Amino acid sequence: MLRFASDPKAQTILQSAWQAFSAYGFRKTSMDDIARGAGMSRPAVYLHFRNKEAIFTALVEAYYAQAVEDVHAALEREGALVDRFGRAFAEHGGATMETMMSSAHGMELFEASLSVAPEAIQEGEAALAGVYAQWLEMRVLPEGIGEAEEIAGVICAALKGIKHTSEDYETYRTKVAQLAVLLARALQA
Q: Tens digit of pLDDT for each residue in 150-185?
């Protein structure tokens, strides 16, 4: 479960919004749906967020904050390189990816994130690339493979491409695992 906010009421609102967006999609979810799910009045929700776009952006920011923390922890755990990448890549998408890809509204949510929260996505992707780059900088990379920052950018781009081209969550998981194997082998060469 994502830790959305330190304020318990905002946390409740964001959890309710995530459930509503997953069930109804972004366009059909109303502030009333979110308020009802949170057990609050609509005016009470507006005390925390100005509109559903602000709520959605907060969800995107929470996803990235959690992903950065989880990817870092996965890379730092002991184990073979392929296992570290496998765990990190699984955490990169996290439970959010499974929920979105299992929802009938998953594609709409992906599209909404691009139009509603592009700055949050850009900042989040940069933070994730930074985690990978920092971790890679601590390793001896094979000659000719590139600099840590470049490799981190490729990792993030590949994961994004897998996300946008996978038909379902199982396909996504399989491709992410394949990427972990390929990267581990390349870095061990």
A: 999 999 999 999 998 999 999 999 999 999 999 999
Torsion of the alpha carbons at 114, 122, 96 and 100, rounded to the nearest 10? 20
Residue 97: strand, helix, or coil = helix
CA distance 4 to 8: 9
Per DSSP, the residues of 26-85 read TTT--HHHHHHHHTS-HHHHHTT-SSHHHHHHHHHHHHHHHHHHHHHHHHHSSS-HHHHH
Rounded to whole angstroms, how far apart are CA atoms 124 and 130? 10
Tokens, residue 16: 């309710």
Cα–Cα distance for residue pair 63/57, rounded to 1 Å: 10
Q: How many angstroms separate the CA atoms of 92 and 68, rounded?
A: 8
- Long-range contact list for 73-80, CB < 8 A, 24+ apart? 75/131, 75/132, 75/135, 76/135, 80/184
What separation in angstroms does the CA of 1 have from each of 5, 30, 70, 128, 159?
12, 23, 12, 19, 21
Q: Which residues contact 143 (CB under 8 A, 6 or more apart)?
A: none
Q: How far apart are CA 92 and CA 105, in angstroms?
A: 21
Look at residue 25 and give its three-state secondary structure.
coil
Q: What is the pTM of this model?
A: 0.91
